Amino acid sequence: MSMTVIDEIWNVIMASMGPYHEMPESTFLVLAIALGLSLITNAANRFLVDVEKMKSVTKEVNAWRKELDKAKKANDKQLTAKLMKKQQAMMKLQSKMSWARMKISLLFLAPFWIMWTILGGFFGEAIVALSPFTFPWLMGEKLPLFSWYIVCSFAAGLPLSRILGINPED
What we know:
The protein is mainly alpha-helical. The protein is built from 7 helices and 2 strands; from the N terminus they run H-H-H-H-H-H-E-E-H. The chain has one domain.
């Protein structure tokens, strides 16, 4: 494709987003995008990862860690040594399940990158949301695109993962 075609596509996308450049439309647009992307990635995890096995592995690893911590606190060297022999197997189990979820993340890497390129080009450093309280690590009360997306993503991600039953701690 020549640069003029890419420029034309870019201009059409930017023009179509024009009404969303000001608050509160920008606030709701980013919220909707965060909800949509969170729903898509959580649904993909639900249907492409063996959720029951993931929960079983998480439960097994957590029980092993709890027992190991208990043995260390009780200074039971024999039990600690016995449990440490299982460490490599536990790490392997955990790694296998992490890789299954990581594959889903890699699947969505390109679409996320394209979305961020478009949104970043459209909003730049413009303020897209105002917070009623200060987020010191997110630039205070005036939130640009990235900061507001992070807030929305966390606010949407955990409830959706619980609704879809993919939270391994449940």
